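Table 4 source record.
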Amino acid sequence: MLVFVSSYFKLFSNVLAGFILGIFVTVFHYFTFYHVSWKNEVVDKPVKIHGHVSKIINRSSYTYIKLDVVKLDKFHVSPVKTIYANLSVTKSPQALKEGDEVSGFGKIRLFRSRKNFDVFDTELYAFRNHIHFKGRMEIDEIISRKAQFKKAYQRYMASVFNEFELGWLYYVLLSGDRTKITKEQKSEFRNLGLSHVMAISGLHIGILFSLSFIVFKCSAFLIYSRLSQAINVNLGCMCGALIIAGVYVILSGMQVSAQRAWLMAALGVVCYGFGLRIGLTRIVLYALTLVVVFEPFSLLNIGLYFSFSAVVAILWVLSKRQNFNLTSNNLAYKAKLLIKIQFVVFLFLLPWSVFAFQGVSISGLIVNLIVIPLLGLIIFPAIILQSLVSLFINIPLISPLDWVLNESYLLLKDLKFNWLGIGQLGVPDLGLMLLSIALLLVKPTLRYASIPVILLITRWYYWQPPNWQVDVFDVGHGTAVLVSKEGKGLLYDLGANYFGSYSIFENVILPFIKANNITLVHTVISHDDGDHAGGLNDLIENGFGSSLHTFHGLTYQQPCLKQTLNFEGLFVEVLWPQELQNNDNNNSCVIVISDGHNRLLLPGDIESRSELKLVNENSTALQSTILLAPHHGSNTSSRVEFIEAVDAELVIFSRGYHSPWKLPHRDVIARYDNAGYQMLDTALNGHIQIRIFSSRYQVFMAREAKNLWFLR
C-alpha cells in the first residue's frame, strides 16, 4: 500500500522510507540484543550455570534470585547481550549477596508465564528486561565481589533515609529503585495522581539539571576573576549539569522518561553551543527518534507515552502564549500559567490513564499544583543536601520537613474522591480519543476534532454487551472462573498462593475485577486444595469475606451448601456433593449455571466415582454447553459416561504449562475428541473469555490476542 501510494504521491516516499527503516532497526535490534539462538539446547536438562547475582528477589523459606548469566553449559553469553535467569537456589542461599559470582548445576526452562486479559503482562515485562529463563540451581561455588557502584550507591541512599517516615520516597527520588515500595504505597500515590513522582521522569531530570547549573554557575562566579574571557561560562555550566543529570539517569535505571528528558537537555545544550535555533517541537521529535532508534522496544513501555504526551501538552500551552516570560516576578502570572499547564496535561494524559489504570485521579489536578513546585524548590534540594551531609556526619537535617510532609500525606490519602474509576478502555477507543486530541492541537484540523468523538460515542452507543460472561483465568495449575452479568460477579475458586509471596487472587483475579468494575457478590470454593483455595485468606483480607456466606455459611465450611439461587437472572444450582465422599477431590462443589439456553458446568476435581454417581442420579442435570474439565484433565476423571451425559460443545482444561503430571492426559483428550468436543487449554491459550449472547457465544483467548512475534 505504501509503495503504491508513494509511486503517485511523492510526499509519502518519506513515510515509506521511515517504515522500512523502522522494520530494519527493530529486526536488527532484536537479533543483536535479544535473540538467543542456542536457548533451546540448554533447557530441560542438567546444565552448568555461571553468572552474577543481579538481585535477591526473595529470601525466606526459599531463596529466589535474578542471575546475570555469563555461561550456560558450553555456551558463553555474547558481550553485547544481557541474559537473566530467575532461579530458586539451594546450598548456602543465605550467604548470597547482590554482585556475587556463583557457579553450580541446575535445570532451567524458557521463561513462560500466565497470560490474562486486563492484567499485568509478565511475559512482556520479562522480554523488555531480558529475562530468558527460569528454573532452579544448586550452588557449588560463591565468589564474593565488591558491590558495583550503582548497588553501593543504592545501599548508601537506603541507609541515609532509613529512619525518616517518608524515607522510602526520598530513596526512590534519588535512586530510581522502586523495589522498596509496598503495593499500598503505589496504590495511594496512584490515587493521589502522584505516580509520576516515583517514576524518574523529565521532572526529576529538569530539577537536577537546574540545581546543578545553579551550583556550577555560583562556583564559577566565585572564581570569575581567574577565568579566561574566551571561556563560555554558561556553556561549561550547562555541560557540567548535563553530566550530573546523565549520571543520575544511569543510576536511576535508564527509565524511558528520564532518557527522553536527558536527550532533550543534551540537544538544547548542543544547539546553544553551536548557536542553532531549533523549536521545542523539533527537539521533542529528535529525542523521540533517538530513543526509538536505540531502543525500539521502548514502544512497548506505557511510560514512553505518558512522558511524551506530558511534554507535548506543556509545549502546546507555551506555544499559545505570545510573550510568555518564565522569569517574570508576577506571581499571579506564574500561578495562572501553572494551573493552565496542569489542566492541559491532565487532559492529555487522561486517555492513557484510563487505558493503563482504568481510571483517573481527580485530586491529582489540585495536589500536583502544590507538589510539583514543592518538589523542585524544597524537597529535592533538601534530600540532596541530606545525602551529601551524611557523607561526613549523621545529622537528620530534614526531620522537620519529613514530619510536615508525612502528616500532609496521611491527611491527603484519606480524602474521599481521590480516584475516579472509569472502567476498561479498549485500543480502538484509545486511538479515537488520541486522534481527537491530535486534531485539536493544530488550527487547520481543529474543525475535524469532533469526528473521532462522534465515532467514539456511536461506537459506545451501539456496542452490544453480552448477556453474561465467563472468564476462565490462566492461573497455572489450579482453577479460577469468574461468571459476570451486569457488573455483578460469581467467582468459582481462587487459584494458588505460592509460598505466601505471590497470590493468584491478588495479582490476577482482583486486578481484572477492578479493571472491569465488577462487584463480587458470591464466591464458591470447590474444595480446600491449595490450587483451588490458596487465595482464601487474600479474599478475606481484601474485604470479600461476605461473598462466601451464601455457599459456605457465615462461618466458612466445606463442603459447600447444596442449594439453588437466582443470580442476576441466571439459574445457579449446586449438584454435588449429596453426601460426604472418600476424599477432598470427590467432595468438590459441582455447580451448573444456566440462562435457559446456554449452560456452564463447573465440576472442581471430582473423580470417576463421583462422576458415575452424578450420571446415575440425574444425567439430564449435567447437560451443558460449556464444561470445565474435571481435575484439570487428569485420567482419574472424565470417564466416558460423564462426557456423554454432559454432551457439551466446548471443554476447557485449566492447568499449568509445565505440568509435572503431564496434564491433560492423552487418554482424556482422546475421549473428548471422540465425543466431538472443541477443546481449549489455558496453558496454551491463556485466559479464555466466553461472551454469551441469547443464541450464541464468542470465545476470546489471551494468547491469541497478545501473540506478539518476539514472544512466540
